[in-house]
Design brief:
- It is a single chain.
- The protein is an alpha+beta fold.
- It has seven helices and four strands, in the order αββααααβαβα.
- The relative contact order is 0.11.
Length: about 160
């Protein structure tokens, strides 16, 4: 560790051009197309692309890292059946179209919340058994992702 004065006075400690910025190239955020400035070498090494925020990265992951590519993949598809859509709609209505973890609503999201199963569908012999109001909760996409990862705990809010 050197103080700024010692660094300035030291000959040969830093290269002559250490403060110069390197050439940059403009790339687009893979989720929202916002322009980003990156080093050319970074562009070649970034396999998934570039993202302007963690939220954009999370949105892109939710849309693109699915099925066998997802870290929580547990096998083939599950047929949810027709009753799922009715339960989903009732859960959104019960929860006022609002994330039950962070409180963001559909207007702020510009879309309806996801509806998360508290007990995973795969834990039931019949998927229809999982589609009960007491087993689902409305969550925004980021909170849904955290709930699936087990980093947050959620349950339906008590309604009067």
């Amino acid at each position: 560790m050197f103080c700024p004065d010692c660094v300035a006075d030291a000959d040969g400690l830093l290269p002559e051009n250490y403060a110069e910025t390197v050439d940059r190239v403009t790339v687009a955020c893979r989720a929202c197309d916002a322009p980003l400035s990156v080093r050319p070498a970074a562009r070649e090494s970034q396999e998934r692309g570039f993202f302007c925020t963690l939220e954009c990265y999370g949105t892109w992951l939710s849309d693109n890292v699915v099925g066998p590519a997802h870290h929580q993949w547990e096998g083939g598809p599950i047929t949810y059946g027709q009753e799922w859509w009715a339960v989903r709609r009732r859960a959104l209505e019960r929860d006022d179209y609002t994330c039950q973890h962070c409180g963001v609503d559909a207007d702020e999201l510009s879309r309806n919340s996801d509806v998360h199963h508290l007990e995973p569908v795969r834990s039931f012999d019949e998927p229809a058994e999982a589609h009960r109001l007491k087993n689902v909760v409305s969550l925004c996409r980021p909170c849904h992702r955290h709930a699936e990862e087990g980093t947050i705990s959620v349950r339906p809010r008590d309604k009067k």
